[in-house]
Write a structure and sequence with these properties.
- This protein is of the alpha+beta class.
- The protein is 40% helix and 23% strand.
- It contains two helices and two strands, in the order ααββ.
- Strands 1-2 form a two-stranded antiparallel ribbon.
- The chain starts with a helix and ends in a 5-residue tail after the last strand.
- The mean pLDDT is 83.
């Protein structure tokens, strides 16, 4: 799965929230569990 496939498979609001977390420096780590399952470690408050 590539980034474009990922973006097409999730809701726009979830993608927007993830981008906000990243933009504000709250994403600490991002790693693949499997080819289609990713996990992110995020610090900070909710938006």
């Amino acid at each position: 799965m590539n980034l474009k496939n990922f973006e097409n498979k999730i809701l726009a609001i979830i993608l927007q929230r993830g981008r906000e977390y990243f933009r504000h420096g709250h994403v600490v780590d991002l790693f693949a569990i499997t080819d289609t399952n990713w996990q992110a470690e995020v610090n900070g408050r909710s938006f």
